[in-house]
Amino acid sequence: MAWLLIDNSNTRTKFALGDAEGLADWRGVLPTAEVSPESLAGVTEGVGFSAVMVCSVVPDKAAVLKEFFEARAPVHFLGSGSPLGLGIDYPLPGQIGADRLANAAGVLTRHGAPAIIIDFGTAVTFDVISAEPAYCGGVIAPGLGAMSAYLPGKTALLPVIEPEEPASAIGKSTEHAMQVGAVFGYRGLVREIIARIRLELGGRPKIIATGGDAALIARGVKEIDVVDPDITLDGLRQVAARVFQTLP
Q1: What does the pLDDT average to over 228-232?
Q2: What CA–CA distance (Å, rounded) separates 130 from 128?
Q3: Domain residue ranges in the chain
Q4: Residues with Cβ < 8 Å from 89, sequence gap 6 or more?
Q5: In whole angstroms, how far apart are CA 199 and each of 15, 108, 130, 189, 202?
Q6: Order of strands, sheet of 123-129, starting from the edge strand that comes earlier in the sequence
Q7: pLDDT in tens, 20-71
Q8: Which of 58, 118, 242, 246 is the most exposed place for a label (fewest CB within 10 A)?
């Protein structure tokens, strides 16, 4: 039977099924703020699974997930002590976010090492996998949504915008000007961080983008080799294969 894979991030909580062969087609999603026993029962109704693998960066919702699913199946919360399939070259492994470890676990069979994984979520994270392979550190910066929401929250006249591709670099309205600052400016941030990591890491690491804003930003960043929306869930699947391999 398949394993239930849960990526509990700050904005959305994503669900998938997977087994030793790969990810299944079924997907589920909940706004993280709405994760509760009732919503979990709804999203998993009729879904069969033999065990549950979770990566969580939201402690209060992790507690809800733990209580709900431990009554139904074996549950493993991914952490630095989980069988990731690669080493950790980092002074304080316990500080590495579970989602970042899932991305690291997923990258090896999907894209190889060395690699830089850029996860465009509420925060944007850059995770660096050396050729050994080992997780060796990364970068955390504000996410595109956070940058877009900051100005409206701090100014009286600027509106809230949804980031989208600007028609030109010279804004012809307030909204257009903000789109330019958000999207083109954000791409500049991404390029500079990539350049600095490459300089220190050496070689030619493959650069993989994932997360909600990955496709938008990657369209204008030629350094990004591939957009892979499933790398986190597949990383969870691969760790689950090691953790639950003796289960029927």
Answers
A1: 96
A2: 6
A3: 3-142+185-243
A4: 130, 132, 134, 135, 136, 137
A5: 37, 22, 13, 16, 6
A6: 87-88, 134-142, 123-129, 115-120, 206-211, 226-227
A7: 999 999 999 999 999 999 999 999 999 999 999 999 999 999 999 999 999 9
A8: 246
**pLDDT for the residue numbered 122:** 83
- pTM for the structure as a whole: 0.90
CATH number of 3-142+185-243: 3.30.420.40
- Strand ranges across the sheet with 12-19: 22-31, 12-19, 3-8, 51-56, 75-77
Average the pLDDT over 77-89 and give the result: 96
Q: Which residues are identified as catalytic?
A: 99
**Separation of alpha carbons 233 and 14, rounded Å:** 8
The Cα 242–Cα 229 span in angstroms is 22
Q: Of 22, 207, 191, 199, whose CA–CA distance to 113 is shortest?
A: 207
Position of tokens 């899932």? 102
The secondary structure element, H or E, covering residue 185 is helix 185-201
